[in-house]
Amino acid sequence: MSLLRSLLFNLFLYTGIIVVFLIALPALFLPTKITLLFGKFLGHYVVFVVKIFLNTKVEFKGIENIPKTEKYFVASAHQSMFETFALQSVLDYPVFILKKELLKIPLFGLYLKKIKSIEIVRDTTTKDNLNFFDKVATIIKNEKRPLLIFPQGTRVKVDDKVPFKKGVGRIYEALNISCVPVALNSGKVWPKHGIIKHPGKITVSFLKPIEPGLNRDDFIKNLETKIYNEIENIS
């Protein structure tokens, strides 16, 4: 039953994503806001297929902690593909910080570029990386959109406590805006590897913002503690 459920889920998930991408092709030549609307729809669609085909409840907690007027960025735990899509259903058209390899995926990469995603080449020094924080600051200044970063750097298991990348601390210092930590347990239902998905409950918890003013190391330590403690609470 788990295998059949997982196969049906994958069928409807990827078919739906491809259909949305194809329908949205003209949006690549229209204002960015149109493409962002398709992204938000896709976020709701992914949550829907998770609920229906994986017999899974999805709860978004602490939405009241998302600032309504001030600028902010979001630092989220990363355990599966789920949050990559689902967070778009809650946040107001986030700007993704992502690895450059994702921009090379056919069609998908075109949409990522269109919505002004910011690329970074990990573990290397390039001209683009040296200009990275200038790009981030410019986007935050000119766009009424939150920044979204996954500070673990890759998808991890639910109970793995990997150190956060130092870049999230540099972003916090450079932008001087509040950070909304996000804890989740999506890996219990939709793990990083393997075909089989598991029914259960996915909780996405938006925690109280960390205000600007901390030094880089204290911020990262505070962020790790908040996210990992909350993951333990919801898992």
From TrEMBL:
InterPro entries according to UniProt: Plipid/glycerol_acylTrfase
Spans through the membrane: 7-28
GO biological process terms held by the UniProt record: phosphatidic acid biosynthetic process
MF annotations from Gene Ontology: 1-acylglycerol-3-phosphate O-acyltransferase activity
CDD domains tied to this protein: LPLAT_AGPAT-like
UniProt keyword annotations, A-Z: Acyltransferase, Membrane, Transferase, Transmembrane, Transmembrane helix
Pfam families: Acyltransferase
Domain Phospholipid/glycerol acyltransferase residue range list: 72-187
Name the record gives this protein: Phospholipid/glycerol acyltransferase domain-containing protein
Species in which this protein is naturally found: marine metagenome
